[in-house]
Structures are given as structure tokens and as C-alpha cells.
Amino acid sequence: MAYPKSLQTLIQILKKLPGIGQKSAERFAFRMLDWKEKDLIQFSEAIEGVKKNLTYCPECGCLIEVSPCSLCNRDRRDASILCVVSDAKDVFSIEEMCHFNGMFHVLHGLLSPMDNRSLGKVDLDKVSARIKELETKEVILALDSTLEGDATSLYLKKQLEPLGIFISRLALGIPMGSSLDFIDEGTLSRAFSGRNSF
């Protein structure tokens, strides 16, 4: 016997979330049926509010609720350093550690020839224009340590080198509190090649 149509629709929508398959979506949908009406209304308003109230800053690409973007404020942030990230979520992770006070630029994706994703001339022109406008002296490539992240970092480095600025990448290697017994060969190799003086 098939689920009622309204329940099927909810299950299909929940399956759009990353990591959620049929069984998890069904479990969530049935759990939501037990929610009080006020909780369901609050949930739907929160979803509607995200789409209505949030936008991307036209300058840096960060997720903002009010304009102007506080992350683009030159009076409070160091414009000589520009941190390039792939996703707006990465900005919040970096901001949470309270160690970086430079500017950000969000690419909204990484190069992935397998998925037919590339960085267009518009994206590169925008990064270059911001570097010139901000008079940036260092660009930090804070991209994932994946095949796509590595490819994007190498591509950006090649494209930005003619600007004559210092280009760095986040250190990669052994995580804090880990034992060498549990480190994979690739991570250990990176840790050796990126070692610093002590």
C-alpha cells in the first residue's frame, strides 16, 4: 500500500538533502507527523525565511542577511590579505576560529572536469578585480584538500601569478591529537613536504 500523496511529497523533498536516502526521509517524515502544529509552522517559516532573508554579497560572495556586508568593511578588516574559499560555509568556519581578519572571496564551487564544472572568465576577472581594488598583497587559497581543491588551487595560482602578489595555501598534514599509526600515506607525505622550521 502506497503512502498518502502528501506524505510521499514530503519524503521526496527530504531526500533532496545530502546524505538522506529513502529510509531516513521516511523516518523524518513520520517523526514530523508527531510534531505540534506550531512547530511545523515554525519549521516552514524558517525554511521560507532562509530563501527570503539571505543573499550573497555581490562583492565577496559571502552569505549575508543585511547589507552592507560586514566582511567587506575595510575599516575593520585587513584588505591586504584575501582568503579564497570554495563555499560560503567555509567563511563561517574560518571566522569561528577568530584568527583571520582579512577579506574573503567565495568561488561557489571548485573545478571538476568530471562534473563539467569550470571557473569561468567572469569568476577569474572578479577575483583579479578585487585583488587590484583592495591592493591585496597576499592571497590565501583555503580550498579543500581534494582532487578538485588541488586542481582549483593550481589553476588559480597560475592565473594570479602575473599580478605579482604572494600566493599561499593552507598548511596540510597531520591533524592535532593524532597518532602516526593512523595517518594515511598521502597525508603523511604532505606533512613531510610542507614541514616548517621548529
Characterization of this structure:
- This protein has 198 residues and is an alpha/beta fold.
- It has a domain at 73-170: Dna Topoisomerase Vi A Subunit, Chain: A, domain 2 (3-Layer(aba) Sandwich), CATH 3.40.1360.
- The protein is built from seven helices and six strands.
- The protein has helices spanning 5-14, 22-33, 37-53, 88-96, 121-134, 147-160, 185-193; strands at residues 55-56, 63-64, 78-85, 102-106, 138-141, 166-169.
- The strands form two sheets. The chain has a four-stranded parallel β-sheet.
- α6 links the parallel β5 and β6.
- α1 (5-14) packs across α2 (22-33).
- The longest helix has 17 residues, at 37-53.
- The radius of gyration is 21 Å and the shape is globular.
- 18% of the residues are buried.
Name the descriptors.
alpha/beta, four-stranded parallel β-sheet, Dna Topoisomerase Vi A Subunit, Chain: A, domain 2, two-stranded antiparallel ribbon, 198 residues, globular, 7 helices, 6 strands
- Pick out the low-confidence regions: none
Biggest sheet, in brief?
A: 4 strands, parallel
Topology-level CATH name of the domain at 73-170:
Dna Topoisomerase Vi A Subunit, Chain: A, domain 2
For the biggest β-sheet, the strand order reads 4-3-5-6
Principal-axis shape: globular
Quick summary of this structure?
It contains seven helices and six strands; from the N terminus they run αααβββαβαβαβα.
